Amino acid sequence: MAVPVKRTFAVFVEDKPGVLNRVASLFRRRSYNIESLNVGATHEPGVSRMTIVCEADTDKARRIEANLYKMVNVLWVDDITHKQTIDRTLALIKVNCSSEQRDEILRICEVFRARAIDMSPDRITIEITGPRDKVDGLVSVLRPFGILELVQTGTVAMTRGVEKHDLAHPTVPASRNDAA
Amino acid sequence: MHPLEGRPVDVRPGAFFIGCAQLESRVESTTCSQPAAKELLVTPAHPKLENRIGQSLTGAQIIWESLVREGVEVCFGYPGGAIMPAYDAMIQYPIHHVLTRHEQGASHMADGYARASGQVGVCIATSGPGATNLVTGIATAMLDSIPMVCITGQVPSHLIGSDAFQETDITGCTIPVTKHNYLVTKPEQIAPTIREAFYIARSGRPGPVVVDITKDAQQQSCTFEWSDEEIVLPGYRPDYAPLSEQLEGALDLIKEAKRPILFSGHGIIKASATDTLMKFVEKTNIPVACTLLGLGGFPANHPRNLGMMGMHGETWVNKAIQEADLIIAAGMRFDDRVTGNLKTYAKNAKKIHIELDPAEINKNVWVEVPIVGDVGAVLRELTPRVEANERSEWLGHIDSLKGDSAVRDIKNLPDLGKLFAAHVIHDIYRFTEGKALVVTDVGQHQMWEAQYYKHDYARKLLTSGGLGTMGFALPAAIGAKFAEPNDSVWVICGDGGFQMTQAELSTCAQEGIKVNVAIINNGFLGMVRQWQQFFFGGRYVATPLLSPDFVMIAEAHGLTGIRVEQRSEVEEAVRTAEATEGTVVIDFRVEQEDAVYPMVPAGANLQDMIERPSPEQQHNPIFETGEDE
Q: Which domain CATH number covers A116?
């Protein structure tokens, strides 16, 4: 049997009311568990881009793709799991921090390329952007100080290099025909 | 091969999207599943109708203008507050409206109309409870891929979200059970939305589309515009063409196969591919098994037709499937009722899956060669390139399988003066000469009908296959009668299902239409009782059913009622029903605890069928092994 792995889909959808609900409904109805989902505008007017992370084996991934394509408002689906990608999560972490601990926490931030963005006498708020595992790493290092609040976005992802999507005239990607 | 992959993608010829080449242009496509669709898109306004393009019309008028232009002649509905403006405008247009007794009836009627005619069925209801009552019918249409447009009223747009009187979020409710849906809040959106709705409903793999229109959009006016241009929806790809390597792969498998079998599904009927299939089968001599919804797609009396497969399929069909070395699945989707236990399903067979919907490929059963495309077009491509073959060895073997499993042959039912459902249905088949348009409900009678009414023609058996909706038969038959007024329409239903939508008898009376209703009345919710007998220790919980006197029910509606208790009375009752003007209800009082045989228990291996016990061996050990699912 194929092994389930964490999959990342870039999904281009029409920017219309209710589309997020339709996509979410598909995942719920077919029992595909979403790990994270992010939606935002693209450079094309009227086109939004979703980054959906979920666990699936090869067959399931293809069915997810096919079912997404069945939706009238879905323009283009790209399973970028095994492509060269840049993926980023943003987190804001508010931590207990006495004046004696400040230096240590700021040094930790440097290691993780995180930034302190707010400070009060007994706490500090840190912003970090990076791949999921880097964010998780910082969170685990900060946990002993006492995390007061943590908020994070879903992953956004993009392939490296140039891959042009003509969203005005989307067609099934050539790669699908080559697969045979 | 990526290190994280369990197996290499490329060595799998069944990999998912292999070659679902999307047609670049739908205009050039010759493989559209529904050729009628394009013609209808440019249907001019009705000849009786003044051309109102460019005039200022209310949204309510635009609804009907649009429906007329989509070729709608009849719609089924129930009025109410939020749809009243539309109803008020209806009388100006040449569309016949059928008032139902419940919105569920309206949606099943639109469904039955669509199944019988191949056209888009239309139903209409008000907001809130009117719309939610449609949902069962919409889900029924969705699971069986029936083209349907449902128009619902909605509270005025400024009240949306305020929990106004009779407000429900019907677009939200129906997302999982529609192909697509729309909320329309402006009159100028109505015409383009209805065009799109019809286009989506009938193209590709068909399905139901809901158009929810606010009351203020119906009341406001705007300039009516109608475009005949091709609809372009950037994210919608209904047409796929098979790739040549897929066809080559299929031809290779067919050439090698010694024991092939072809599955004829609902897709054959919907793609109007019955003649094409016949040519393919007559050349290759590959035996054909049908799914429940595929019955009639290949003539039941043709020597290559094996009959129905699956849970209540013929034993020899299921045995042949388990022994086959090649399955050609045409327009079907390997439902769990067809496959039984997937782990042991057709293990010896390579599989070719011809299917329009890419999401169905490799969903339940992994296939060697998927062919994504219109099943008629694919068979037309394959037929000239396959080799003619006598196949006498394999066909002879299937004949010998038939020999041992004639246990549930109709002749083996004792004619003790008792009435058996199988006899009733067999007799209806005989006396209607196999030409009736039969609409069945859900349960034991549905399976008996599938076994004993031999359908030689497509679109002459309508039944709720995927969703299994009790109460479907009577309203769907009314819809079918509007589509095929010259057909003899027979409803075959149980005493339970009939009572779910019995109120539609009064629709028959009001519309003055004739359907013949055969109630297979065994005083139980029969299929559930059968499962209780087989799998729940014979505890008949909540299945005994006290019904009203159906003869008096018919008479109370001004219709004809007949009661039949003996086999000798069946012929006369059927002939009387055929000869009587107006709807006739026949109450067939059948044996109460008869069961449908053979049966593959849910989730069991396809070859492990419970067969009708022979008189000397009443106990069948398989009864206790079935797992409930």
A: 3.30.70.1150
